[in-house]
Amino acid sequence: MSIFAGARKCDLKILAEELGETVNDSHKLKDLKKIILASKEYDEESAKKWMNTIINERKEREEIAEQKRQDEVAERRHQEELAERRR
């Protein structure tokens, strides 16, 4: 399995930076992969661990943001119901 499985561009950018490479938003996914694999700091086992950590942290942030959004929607609905009852 590729170390890049499930990775997004933002994940690859972070890994490349962790490896000491200079990257920017104009780099495409395939370019980031090449930069990572060509890095003198690249070690497959370490890169896999880093990539898994980076992906898991991103997913956790996304889940927290989604839960916050759902909580805000629920609170808005609750406030609307209360306002409706007062009429």
From TrEMBL:
Top-rank taxon, per record: Eukaryota
Region ranges (Disordered): 63-87
This protein's name: Uncharacterized protein
Originating organism: Araneus ventricosus
